[in-house]
């Protein structure tokens, strides 16, 4: 009897609860989906973006300005500052959209993104890009903007002391839109190189080989500086260069660890590998120079550190500390001989060794990524590791395709862009301006003291 009453009460209670749920059904159905935003990831990515911006101004500005002669120190720093300004605006208007949105035509998307985010009109407060799903799209756009800023700015090292500022600003603008943006889409935005399986964690080919190749083409087209090989062109202020290189070293953690687009295990390993590779490369360059020239120069140590930063960039999210050590040592030694001896043998005037450090270092790092990547560390979605640890020799071939494609496209495209600019405004300052100095002639200012 008691059991029967309990059963009756249970049935009635269930019916009542069901009726209550039915009345509340629309409210349950209308409940918004959970917010994908991760506050920790967002905080880290804003910090990373600021660190990468620090790499260009003041990092690169001081690094390059310290290595030129006194009469060109302001003009060299102005190139980094001017590039930051013009590229920021162009990235906002169209660069981000074409590089990092998906083209509705899947075949066309292999080569170029869409115009959906033109002027960022469609970017709301809570917009999310599928490429970085736990941070606001505004933060992802800002992070990628800082990469777009430093890549063309690196080219300034190759053409230091002799390019018109007007030509430089035109070059920065056209090169960003016609060279950097498509290549960034090919590798990171869903394009054909990424689909092929190319591993470039933070920009070995997209940033460094790309900028190095453009620098090589540009310095060849401009020709040698007046007095090259006969006049003393030693750096005016190595302390500036040392401070700039130090800022690059610190900022690079945003560059590499930030490319995880999250505060996660992969970001931690990328940061560790970056530090190890940079230190190893500084030692590799230093000891190479010490053996050959009998003195370890400050310029050599900071150049080696930058070479290590460059070479570990494509590998940082795919290798462990041992891989970072190998890449760093290789970068220090190879980039030393490339910048000091190969340049001398071939006779080109790459003023601040943009090709020798960024071009050679980027290509070397990309290929060593194919050899040293570990499947167990790879958190970027690629299914395989590299050749040495996981037996995936095919990855070396894919990495070669990546290096070759970027080198050829950038080299040809840069040549065409510079030819057009030369016909319109001219590339090089007059001999008189170059001899007197770019600071006073192009900007009406000089450095005192």
Can you describe this structure?
It is globular and about 70 Å long. The chain has one domain: Ammonium transporter fold. The relative contact order is 0.13. The protein is mostly helical. The protein has 16 helices and no strands.
What tags apply to this protein structure?
Ammonium transporter fold; mainly alpha; 16 helices; 449 residues; disordered N terminus
Element layout with pairings:
Blueprint: H1 2-29, H2 39-65, H3 73-100, H4 137-154, H5 165-188, H6 192-196, H7 204-222, H8 238-256, H9 265-293, H10 298-312, H11 321-346, H12 354-372, H13 387-390, H14 394-424, H15 431-436, H16 438-443
Summarize the structure.
This protein is mostly helical. It is built from 16 helices and no strands.
């Amino acid at each position: 009897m008691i059991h029967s009453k309990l059963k009756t009460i249970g049935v009635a209670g269930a019916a009542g609860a069901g009726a209550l749920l039915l009345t509340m059904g629309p409210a349950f159905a209308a409940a918004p989906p959970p917010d994908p935003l991760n506050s920790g990831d967002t905080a880290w990515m804003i910090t990373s973006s600021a660190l990468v911006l620090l790499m260009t101004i003041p990092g690169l500005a001081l690094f390059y300005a310290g290595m030129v002669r006194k009469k060109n120190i302001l003009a060299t720093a102005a190139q980094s500052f001017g590039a930051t300004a013009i590229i920021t605006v162009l990235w906002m208007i169209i660069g981000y959209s074409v590089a990092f949105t998906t083209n509705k035509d899947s075949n066309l998307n292999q080569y170029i993104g869409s115009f959906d985010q033109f002027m960022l009109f469609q970017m709301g407060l809570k917009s999310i890009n599928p490429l970085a799903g736990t941070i606001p799209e505004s933060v992802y756009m800002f992070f990628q903007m800082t990469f777009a800023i430093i890549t063309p700015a690196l080219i300034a090292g190759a053409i230091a002391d002799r390019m018109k500022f007007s030509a430089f600003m035109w070059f920065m603008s056209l090169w960003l839109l016609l060279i950097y943006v498509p290549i960034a889409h090919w590798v990171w935005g869903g394009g054909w190189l990424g689909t092929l399986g190319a591993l470039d964690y933070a920009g070995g080919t997209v940033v460094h080989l790309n900028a190095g190749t453009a620098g090589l083409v540009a310095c060849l087209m401009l020709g040698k500086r007046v007095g090259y090989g006969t006049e003393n062109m030693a750096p005016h202020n190595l302390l500036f260069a040392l401070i700039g290189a130090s800022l690059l070293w610190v900022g690079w953690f945003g560059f590499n660890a930030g490319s995880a687009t999250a505060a996660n295990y992969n970001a931690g390993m990328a940061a560790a590998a970056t530090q190890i590779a940079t230190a190893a490369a500084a030692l590799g360059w230093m000891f190479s120079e010490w053996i050959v020239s009998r003195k370890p120069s400050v310029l050599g140590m900071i150049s080696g550190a930058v070479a290590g930063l460059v070479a570990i960039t494509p590998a940082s999210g795919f290798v462990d500390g041992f891989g970072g050590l190998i890449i760093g040592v290789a970068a220090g030694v190879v980039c030393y001989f490339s910048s000091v001896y190969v340049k001398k043998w071939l006779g080109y005037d790459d003023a601040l060794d943009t090709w020798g450090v960024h071009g050679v270092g980027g290509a070397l790092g990309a290929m060593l990524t194919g050899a040293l990547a570990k499947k167990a560390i790879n958190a970027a979605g690629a299914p395989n590791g590299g050749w040495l640890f996981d037996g995936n020799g095919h990855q070396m071939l894919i990495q070669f395709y990546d290096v070759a494609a970027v080198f050829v496209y950038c080299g040809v495209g840069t040549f065409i862009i510079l030819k057009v600019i030369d016909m319109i405004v001219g590339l090089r300052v007059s001999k008189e301006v170059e001899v007197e100095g770019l600071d006073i002639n192009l900007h009406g200012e000089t450095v005192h003291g």
